[in-house]
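== Fold encoding ==
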Amino acid sequence: MARIFRWLFRSITALVFLVFAVVVLVYWFAARSIPDYTDTLNVPGLGAELEIVRDHANVPHIFPANDPDAFFGLGFVHAQDRLWQMMLLRRTAQGRLSEIFGERTFLTDDLMRRLDLYRISVQSVNAQDDYTRAALEAYARGVNAWLGQVNLGARGRGAPEYWIFPPQISPWQPADSIAIAKLMAFQLTDKASQEVLRARLSLVLNDADRLADIVPDAPGAGIAALPEYAGLVPRAREIRTAVAAPVQDFLYPAPQRGLGGASNAFAAAPSRSTTGATLLANDPHLGFSAPGVWYLARLELETGGVIGGTIPGLPGILIGRSDRLGWGLTSSYLDDQDLLIEELNPTNPTQIRTSAGWTPLRSRDSIINVKDAEPQTVKLRWSENGPILPGVHLDLAQITPPGHVVALSWTGLSEEDTSLGAAIGLMRAGTLEEALAAGERHVAPSNNLMVVDRERIAMKVIGQAPRRPARHQSRGRLPSLGARPENRWHGGLSYAANPEFVEPVGGIPGNSNNKVAEEPFPFHISYDWGDTQRVERWRGLMQSREVHTRDSFIEAQLDTVSFTARALLPLIGKDLFNTGAPAPEGTPERLRQRALALLADWNGEMNEHLPEPLIYAAWIRALQDRLIRDELGGPLAAEFTHPEPVFIERVFRDVDGAAIWCDVVQSSDRESCRDIARLALDDALIWISERYGTALETLRWGDAHEARHDHVVLGDIPALDWIVNIRQSTSGGDNTLMRGATSGRDPDPFLNVHGAGYRGVYDFADPDSSVFVTSTGQSGHPLSRHYDDLGELWRRGEYIPMSLDPDLARAASVGVTTLLPQ
């Protein structure tokens, strides 16, 4: 027996030692790719000596001898810290993900090839001005210089992911940066998906008022009623989708409804500032990931220093400030996409109907290599209106009649896309006028540009607006027949036609993706706008003070009070609050009374430590589901993953008879809105009880509303997910200024998946007192201490200095890298 125990002890000891040795070996290999920021390197492609100072937060301050070397340095640091992220974005834009991930990403590759983004990006290189082209080329040399160091210096393949996936990396090209910019533009617009949704609703709802309820126009002056989709497109009633749409892969770029681009930006003129100089706050909202989208950097150009947020793969400070100017961006929601229904020739499906008769589609074969499977050949096709997309994409099968196909018109498909030139022009601008002029080169995605100098403020919509004929059948709101000339684009509108606000009356312009202008079609910008709620809270905060400070702007940026909750709760609960005697303990009625008592005393603050936000969010979600599911059916109702505040308000105010939504179609009784509100609250409390228990007072919104910064490739792998994913308990919600948009998907519908990955507040009374922060960290390496160090500051609503002072950058720096020409 003693011998058995002795051998058992030796075996266990050997096993523990072996596991320990394997862990140490894996860590050693993975950690090899963490850069040494204190180094001197000889690199090719550099014009003169270049110094890169990493400040205490690992923000690189790049000090070159000339402008091309500044962009070289930016490419170098991007590759040092975010190599895998950059290469994944490039593969996505090229439609080459399946080469390393297999069939799971084929749908994304298929879409990217059909959009032909990379070929268009190659063509767009020739459209750049000399300075931008030189910047793109220098940036590419910088990326490739680090790739050379990886290949020659045994630097752990450049990123730990390359120990799992093929380590071969092709050199970076200028077109790669343009392709990534186009990919992100596609991710930030959902107008095509909105057209599909409207068409599907139009086929189900035969009442124009009911369609206006569920997809309402943004508040403001009225517009003409939508035509019926079946009236626009012959044979639309014949659409039959027998099979469900394929499940989108984990890198599919089309945005989920409610999770497209969003942001806040607001400014104060000197007359509204305590210091007599301008203020600017900006927090663009994108999907969360680890590492995050944004990367902080400072460039020293010949026109002066520039600091702010960059995106790895793109050569420029996209949002930030110089000594003279500050600028921020929000999504403008400009309608830059149309779907055109093309009729196929029944005797020759390679032809479509046009105003000139049957015309051949342009076509080209493209081979997609798939890991562990046979290569697949995809036939790419184009009409004069744009690329032909099959029904597996964007739910197009749901709205494509027999004998037809769908073409996509999108401004981002331009072969003369100079959007990166606009971003680089903003960095070099010295005056407000120069900044606004730089915006003319921006094509897609359309944004609201907020820009300030020390004394003036301005906001302008930038991005190409398509010119639709005044006789367009749907005004761009529904898929329309491509053969009809009145439905086709006739070029673009002039930049001067875009809304512009220079030194506006009141001194405080702002935008939270709300409606900015009411212009007649076709100068209308959009019929679909973003959030209509946050701007109301922002307006109240701005008007509550005569003058503002940097700190009051920070307070507004971090505000978590929901205007939506304050507006809707009195409506949906007016017949439920404070009614009836206390019910017996342990009954559903008693639980409902406790929930209502909590909500009655709540001020609408979506604080992570409170129970009320969770009760409210679950109630509104269940309420909307009860209102729409019986009319729309399960598949279509599932498209509404987030509550629609304007819809719910219309129903409970019975606008144009909208209260009819409260009546259950399948029921013989006529249910009131009070009945549905009570039943929905019970649904919500059952869900909460099963998930968190019945002790409502101990609930925490932050437990359900965790910010999910997941590694897009390794985040689902057990054990590794604990290392690579970042989770944070957070405040805010779908409609708060400190926006934390929820996933809307079971089993965790309230996870925070989309919000301000970057926050910046700039004070031009003392520019070096400006501050900024990102939601994760600078490094893309999970073993680096800079992988998530900024995330905790971000979660607490804290910032780091945004200074152009070289001495401050060098103080407590984490390293200085000197690059020498080879």
About this structure: Residues 91 and 482 are 32 Å apart (CA to CA).
